[in-house]
Every structure is written in structure tokens, then in C-alpha cells.
Fold these 2 entries.
Entry 1:
Amino acid sequence: MDWKSLLSSRETPTHFIVEGRLAVERLQESSYFIEKVIRIDQDLSREEASQLLGFHFHRGHLAIARKPAPTPLSAFKSGPIVVLPEIADPGNLGTIIRNTAALGGAGVLIGKGASPFNAKAIRASAGNLFRLPVRRSPDLLADLRALRQSRTLIGASLSRNSLPLQKLPTFENPVLLLGPEDFGLSPEIESLCHHLAYLPMTREVDSLNVASASAIFLHELRPTFP
């Protein structure tokens, strides 16, 4: 394995890079196959790492891991599922993965957009990518149709049919759909939702960053913790 080329690529169809002590430790605790843990100042100097990665690297911990087999829908157990049909920013994606893990979610289902194996997404997830089922859907609409047979789909939307989140009844194992901040959920996806909800806000602010919104929605939809 040419691990230095993998560092330069950052992510390939089969491998990805993990940066930082916490993320590497959580990778090591997981079932992911680790190709190499790179010891800075032993396997590689900090200067060499920075040159290969393309930025000033100062964290001191690196690892190269193999991407796992695709996560099946059956991997999602109890708790809310977060669905992101089209998320562009890997930092937001990683933060949503972290929020989902922290607030009792069953996992994250992704359509188009950022990769969960992007190094920025992994850092933002604080390594929770390795603790939580995350599925990149090959056919999101088919997955949603399958999920709505046994779960309640709740779409975050500012449409005229939306209710304030606090006015929704309680559902067991709901599915929360969060669209892009600029244009939201598509009409086709909204039509699959059992309910549409929004977060009431003041000062004429009509939306929050999607990662921030995910935490509030999940807190309201969360299961009862022991």
C-alpha cells in the first residue's frame, strides 16, 4: 500500500484519512479495518505530513482506514433517523452525525453531497462516524418509501402546511428530514412526509444553520434517556 499517496489523495473510493487523537482513538475502538496508524515524528515528520496533506498539520495523529461495506437500512434500530437528501458542507455533516449520536438517534441517511469520510466531516463528528450507522443511499426515494412503512417521516419545512415543532405529537422512532439551507426539501420528498414542521424564531430570522437546527429537532424528538 502506497500510504503516502493515500495521504495526498485524502479520500479514495476505498480508503480515507483520519486526523486527530480523538478521532484516531475512536477509529481504533471500532470495527473499521485500519490500514496504518501514522506516528508523527516517527513514521513521518510534521513537515512531510503538512506537505502531503496540503495544509499545516499540527494534530500529531493520523490513520488510514478502509471504507466499510455499504450500511443497510436494517442497521437503523431504535431512535430517530436523520435524513440529509443533499448536504454540501462536510463540517455540517459531521456535526449532524455528532448531534445524532449525542441525542439518541439511530443513524444518518445521506443522499447527494458531502462524503461522511471527508476528513473535515470526521473531525466535526468527533469520531462518532465510527459509532453510528451512516448510510449513503443509492436510491433515496426508495429508502424513504421503505422507511415510511414503519416510521413517521417529519420534514423540516417552511411551507404553509408546516406546524411548529412543539405542536407535533410524540412519535416512536421518527425520521427527520433536513434539506439544504438555500432551497430546502424538494416537493417530491415533502410529499412523502407524514408531517412538516418548522422551528419558531424571532427577529425575522427564518432559518438556522442546518447542523444547529438538527440539534433542536433531535432534542424535541429524542427518546427518553435512562
Entry 2:
Amino acid sequence: MNLLVTCARNLEPETKNEIGKILGEIGDQEPEILNVGMRGILLVKTNIETSRIIEWVKDKVVEEPWLIRYCLRIIPIQTITETEMDKITESVIKLKDVIKQDDSYRITIEKRNTDVSSTEIITDIAKIFPNKVSLNQPDWIVLIEILGDKTGISILKDSEIFSLDKTKRMSD
């Protein structure tokens, strides 16, 4: 799975349709789109480069705002691991080299169906980076998406994440 798509609760079928259409237009006729058993969340596996998808969707929202209605956020997922502290830390270490010495970062954690401590995750991940933290304007976001016993991890620039609200605000 390389995308996490969020939508309003109980609109998963419509969102599944919408992301399927989007991926079809870009060139993936057979993406794998899964309900993860949590309201408002879909996981997607596509053969299309995630940055292309994000750019395409952002452009569409500007050109034809009515086309994207259900996909609230589209988040690239670079790796998936089990929801265990040591596995999460190992995965972040494997991805950490995109953050250069002078770059700032922020750790963002989204937890669903877990009682893993956010403080513990932040403390352990912060030890990996000697860089300065910037909560408002980081160069990079270390994103930890916990979905029960599975955790998706990415290190992204803010512009590499699609948010329908943010994109609509910027195009007004």
C-alpha cells in the first residue's frame, strides 16, 4: 500500500469510486483499494508515482473544484511496518537520509485503534535526528500513521500531501 486516503465517515464507497476514477485517469486501471475497517480511511496500492497523483489532484481542484468531493486527504505512504516501537524506529531510520543536516523537521502522529503512546514515539524518533524542530514551517514531516497493528511511515514535504481544504483555500 502506498497511499492513505481519508474521507468523511460513511462515505468510503463514494471515496473508493473517486480515487479509483482519479487513478484510472492518470493511468492505473487496476489499483487495489481497501477498506481497513476504520471509518473514513482507505488504503490504496497503485503503480503510479505518488508525487504525480498529488500534483494531478491539486491541479484538478484548481481547474475543476467540483471534481474532487470525497478524498479529503491523500497521503503517500513510503513503508508499512508493525505497530511496535522498535519496528517504527527501524523504518524511520531507513528513510531518514532525505533530511539533510540543515533541514528542519516535525513529527506528526495520527493514531487509530491503538494505545501506543505518542510521547514515546516522538521521544524515540526525535533521537534519530540531530536537526532542529519546526512545528509551523518544517522542511520535512516525519509522518507516522498508526492503523491498529499496522503503521504507515513517510518522510515528506508538506507539499507532497494532498489536503482538499488546504488546496481549495490556496486556490481562492
